[in-house]
């Protein structure tokens, strides 16, 4: 994978109803296709088609989600292939907003198909289940993100479990993920979930609280790519990319930085021939291929 400093995303060729896409989690769905979520629009996934070199987005298709329920503030997206079927999973931020008057709940399983609307199945009361089974997050679950509250932005499929990356709560020098075992092709209820565990990972040279903005698994290396950024909206921690292997105590930061205008929210790795690439999507309505 190429390393490039000061990454500045290129704008998408289209907008979502006249406003830039607020792009977050992203996954590959075809040779030149990638799907992403817009956290301002929980009714659909958005699938972008690249040119043959996979450098420039040619067009974006709206893939309406049918049956997604009350999904709010979608932030995470991951893919898993099981028994010849492709599943996409969408996770909300699980945050509270507007002084607790709104709760963004949602964990949605999507059975992917190449064209048309996408059938979706929500898992009822996932946020309530998570806070009940992770007492260490219960207090944060009552607070808004900028007050140190629960805020999930990353999502990855990892060896029989979903990994949820926490943007918050956060402490300087560490980031956290919650690992939840699940049979992705089985019954989609909280009763089918395994016991969650909290993973705490060190971040070198980190003086300010940072959170996970997205996670991408790399089947070739067996590790994870972590997109990091400030935990609160008023923070000043820079966006960084790092790799992490299970069992390691800390992230290994890559020699990649981001332009001051960039707001990277989603990342995925993919192969192009023998070369490994990184795709970044930006909540300012852009993307970059590294």
How would you portray this structure in words?
The chain has 290 residues and is an all-beta fold. Helices cover 3% and strands 48% of the residues. The chain is built from 1 helix and 22 strands. The strands form 5 sheets. Strands 2-3-4-5-11-10-7-6 form an 8-stranded mixed β-sheet, with no helix packed on it. A 4-stranded antiparallel β-sheet has the order 1-22-21-20, with no helix packed on it. A 4-stranded antiparallel β-sheet has the order 12-13-14-15, with no helix packed on it. The chain is globular. The N and C termini lie close together (7 Å). 44% of the residues are buried.
Cα-atom radius of gyration: 17 Å
Please state the overall shape, judged from the principal axes of the Cα atoms: globular
- The ordered H/E elements are EEEEEEEEEEEHEEEEEEEEEEE
Trace the largest sheet across and list its strands.
Answer: 2-3-4-5-11-10-7-6
Distance, first to last CA: 7 Å
Q: How would a textbook summarize the main sheet?
A: 8 strands, mixed
Helical segment tally? 1
- Low-confidence runs: none
Mean pLDDT: 93
Which structural class matches the secondary elements? mainly beta
Helix content: under 10%
Total number of β-strand segments?
22
Relative strand content = over 45%
Topology:
Elements: E1 10-11, E2 23-28, E3 33-38, E4 41-50, E5 57-66, E6 74-82, E7 85-92, E8 96-97, E9 102-103, E10 107-111, E11 118-122, H1 126-133, E12 151-157, E13 161-171, E14 174-181, E15 197-202, E16 210-217, E17 224-230, E18 240-244, E19 252-253, E20 264-272, E21 275-282, E22 286-289
